[in-house]
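Extended Data, panel c. Modelled sequence:
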Amino acid sequence: MYCPSCGTKAGEADSYCSKCGKSLTAQQETVLYSFGPWGTSICFSRPSFFTVIHKNDTKIVSTNQRLSGYSSFTNSLRFQMPYEAITNTEIFDYMLWRVLWIQYVEAEKMREVSIMCTMSNHEHIDRVNELVQARRRR
């Protein structure tokens, strides 16, 4: 379970966040959709010839509160954004990938991530984009 306010990992029995002190029982975080790592890549900009792309090593998780990406090797957090922090999205094709580019605010700075799937599993991009758009409208 994660704190709905600040995203800090919390114990299942905890009622309040140890970092921000907010209630954890208001709305429990649940996974809505996840995919990867095979056929899924990410980069922290728009993809280009000179961009470092993390290929086949990131699991994407969409919950009722946020979108996150985790390293499939270390399970460490690569990116995390509450839906309300997302300012812009775009879907486009780049080489052999279908790309969901997301711009969001984190710690008062503009960040971006591109989630990419091969054309054979591009339905993941469409599905996670539907979830992002639906959650942003709330």
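The longest helix spans residues 123-136. This feature is highlighted in the accompanying rendering.
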